[in-house]
Records
---
Amino acid sequence: MSESILGSLTPSAIVRALDQFVIGQNEAKKIVAVAVYAHYKKLAVAAEGLEIAKSNVLLIGPTGSGKTLLCETLARILRVPFVTADATTLAQTEYVNEEIDAILQRLLEMAAGDTGRAASGIVFIDEVDKLKSRGGEAWRTSGESVQHALLKIMEGAPVRLRTGQYMDTRNVLFICGGAFVGLEDILATTHSYGYISTGGDDNQNILNRLNARVKPTDLSHFGLIPEFAGRLPIVARLQDLDRASLVRIMVEPRNAIARQFRSILHNEGVELVIEAPVLQQIADLAIEYKAGARSLRGIFEEMMTPILYVIPDRPEIRKVVISSLFDEPRFFAAKAN
Ligand SMILES: Nc1ncnc2c1ncn2[C@@H]1O[C@H](COP(=O)(O)OP(=O)(O)OP(=O)(O)O)[C@@H](O)[C@H]1O
Ligand SMILES: [Mg+2]
């Protein structure tokens, strides 16, 4: 079962598959690829009788940097059932355990009711940074109580679902995500290698890497309970996307937004030409909106709206050229013969 999940996939093959959908974030891709590879290998080894503790993964990165996309794509590559849940939603309900059961229930649905398949699925829990303990809150609704509730399934406790079925969570891979605003400052004050002075650049690079490493103690400093932080030994960080990456996101992935609109218009017999500066203007606006790649679609759709409005009524149009986000698009009819 678990052997067949990986098939012939190696960590580098997983990264290459991710590359087709997720732009940049190379460090995070590598860490995650190795983590899932090791996870599904462990299941295979465990089937032979050797239990190895599970390592869940924490993705730290700003909003719109690709955390959810990375997990979704990963599950698609591995063809394992996948669900996402939002930690803030969990923190707002009085019935945390019921909500958590519902997450596992959805995982089972994604596995078409096959408990064996569901048991090797992936659960992505976003915004776990919002679960940090603040003190002064009622226990029932505090983020801390949610961490405790999540801990149980992350540790692998069997869960009895509403349907009466038992769900084995031992092999479910939990990936948690969050922006962890303020963690940088904690890292700056707690890194323990900084006092070593070095002469060479190489050593400095290694030190920089060690210093950038997020330790469970940093996470508890941030406000996660130590048991929860300890259940997330693998930490991958996603970076803010720069202008060049944002431009690539609009054109490169297989389902990139520029490709989508080009094929919509192609379907109407119209060629769509978006000149390079336009993509840079959109990327610049997205950077201003500070929501990572998330704003790209909205800006792009807005640009396309007037075009999609007129095209269906004007069958003579064969080509549309957009030269600037701030100029009218130019329409060209078929050449008279
Ligand atoms: N690295 C990336 N490569 C390609 N597309 C991306 C990338 N990052 C973000 N996107 C695009 O932006 C959208 C939002 O990204 P995603 O949902 O993965 O962000 P997130 O990091 O999970 O943010 P949040 O913290 O707000 O949940 C995606 O649907 C995708 O279209
Ligand atoms: Mg997300």
---
Amino acid sequence: MTLDEARIAALVREDLAHLIHPQWYAPDHQDPVIFDHGEGVWLTDVRGRRYLDGLSSLWNVAVGHGRGELADAAAEQMRKVAFTNSYTGFSNLPAIRLAAKVVELAYDNMAGVFFTNSGSESNEGALKTARFYWNLRGRPAKVKLIARERSYHGGTLATASMTGLPAFWKYFGPLVPEIVHTRRPDVLDCDCEPNSDGECAHWLEAAILREGADSVAACIAEPVKGAGGVWPPSAHYFPRLREICDRYEVLLIADEVITGFGRTGRWFALEHWGVQPDILTVAKALTSGYVPMGAFVVSAPIMEALSNLPPDARFMHAYTNSAHPTAAAVALRNLRIFEEERLVENAAAMGERLGGGLRRALGGHAHVANIRYLGLIAGLTLLRDAERGTAYDAAEGVGGKVARHMREQGGVITRFVGDQVVLAPPLVVRAEEIDQIVGAVESAVRAVTGG
Ligand SMILES: Cc1ncc(COP(=O)(O)O)c(C=O)c1O
């Protein structure tokens, strides 16, 4: 459906008046793109303009837009039943099948799944589960969570507290206590690689020692930082993190809300480095964004502890819509598409084309540094002087200008984080569409930086 300019202006006025958007800042919302429909990697707005969805909308539309199979799966399930309660004593068919499927696809040590409605709920549930587990093990003092600087874990108060980006804390304090962040140890014996954003596993050890291992329940980490600017770690980072967690009896929570289900070219990202977490959190691509659903997945020892609770203990964690039958039916069909269309393999191949293409187009450019990627998630840094590492002034808004140029001139939508441009197209993306993304990034960077 296309609309005339008068109708669009009225919609924008209504939108500004009544719809509070995430990360709301009214001056940035005077001319929003209002989407109407999509197909594959393409989105069309109410003016009839088409855009290539370079971020899978919000890293979630893995199987692409307009998938009739998912609409059919939802309709079929809704016709059967509106909703059924999944609290203890009740269950439903799609949820049972989905839990088994997620356990089959996830790391070998995984055994149990709790379904949520979002990534934030998954991470919050993971923290509660870690505390619950240590209580069951007779270690009630192990309550703290260590998160990392520049991480993103969600928008609830606890997950915003886990998030290591101070912009998400401002005016919302006080934050939740007993959630702390890694900081550089005083003496840095750091062996991190340049594209790891200076992240170093020693920082976790320093934080555990600072807090006292007996007080630490878990550490949470995104395998590839997403909202923090897309930073794949060095190859030895997660194996070291795992060792440190084991040494100090700290549970490792992998926040795979972005990386889970194929994004990095593997079903789950820690597979790249042969590491298994204790708790895995997912959302986004589980349903490819067609309906809200997330999950936290727990290892066999945690599942065993939950299966053998003492009579006075009950896992009093609940959401009405947990294991919603419609969401589960959509997720099951979505994961079948992944398998039928070999989307994880496509993510690996197209990721190489994207990352290689960006490096060929902009590697060595005077204003571009750190072109990094892992499967179909990629980022690059815009700098005033790439050789010296000098940043642009934040007020110049160079990242925003590049993203705007990409959208208006190149027809590619994506996001920027400060002066990092980030990309994560749907896993169904084809070679010619990748080439269009690379072309749009290159033209935008050259036009905006003048290089
Ligand atoms: C790594 C990560 N964790 C958690 C979340 C929170 O997920 P949600 O927005 O579904 O609550 C996000 C959202 O972008 C995320 O990127």
